[in-house]
Amino acid sequence: MALVLGFYSHNVVHSIQKRFDDTESDNSIDLLSLIPLYVGAGYFALREVIQIISLLSLKVFKLWLYDPSNYLNVAFVSIVWGWTIMMQTGDGDNDTFRVGSAISVIVLWVKLLAYLRNILLDFAVFMRGVFHVIRRLLAFLGSLCIILFAFAQMFHSVFQQTEVCS
Fold first, then answer.
1. How far apart are CA 101 and CA 62, in angstroms?
2. Which residue, 55, 112, 116, 163, is the most exposed by fewest CB within 10 angstroms?
3. Rounded CA gap, 1 and 50, in Å?
4. Residue 70: CA atoms inside 13 Å, Cβ hemisphere, count?
């Protein structure tokens, strides 16, 4: 998991550099540096397929549907394969690629946290405590965001088309 995240981050940076370099005519990245991404995502896809087949043979496929970690695994595989194909072909708008790959990194880090939570007991206890605190603070954070957006809109309205902000 960590290797896929490392190779993904490295290749995304390399792809963005190639896409925004004016002297570079080809945006694609060579297949050799993308093989670890294809293999890593293939491994996690194979795990999901085997899990689905085993649950189908036991006639309890709905267990797979009700487990949110499976949706995270499917999102992980889809994101890694999708963006790796875009890096290999060089397709897509440069700004869209930059924003999309930055947003997709969130899913990869959440997948790493979920993986660590599954294999390390102390980390699982810590994550449960963090989630408990966040749930308790959710109402406060929501009202804080509303207040911040309200003040941002007020300042935007007040200073729009003035010397401070043209």
1. 32
2. 163
3. 18
4. 15
Indicate the residue type of 117: R
> To 5 degrees, how large is the angle CA 44–CA 46–CA 47?
65
Query: Which amino acid is present at 34?
Result: L
CA gap 13, 16 in Å, rounded: 5
Amino acid at 111: K
Contact 73, 111 (CB under 8 A): yes
Q: Number of helices and strands (H, E) in the chain? A: 6, 0
* Eight-state DSSP code of residue 166: -
d(C-alpha 41, C-alpha 99), whole Å: 21
Mind listing the pLDDT tens digit of every residue in the chain (166 residues)? 889 999 999 999 999 888 888 787 788 888 999 999 999 999 999 999 999 999 999 999 999 999 999 999 999 999 999 999 999 998 888 888 889 998 999 999 999 999 899 899 999 999 999 999 999 999 999 999 999 999 999 988 888 878 877 6
| Residue 40 contacts residue 7 (beta carbons within 8 Å) | yes
Copy the structure tokens of residue 132.
């408990």
Is residue 25 within 8 Å of 39, Cβ to Cβ?
no
- Residue 165 carries which DSSP code? B
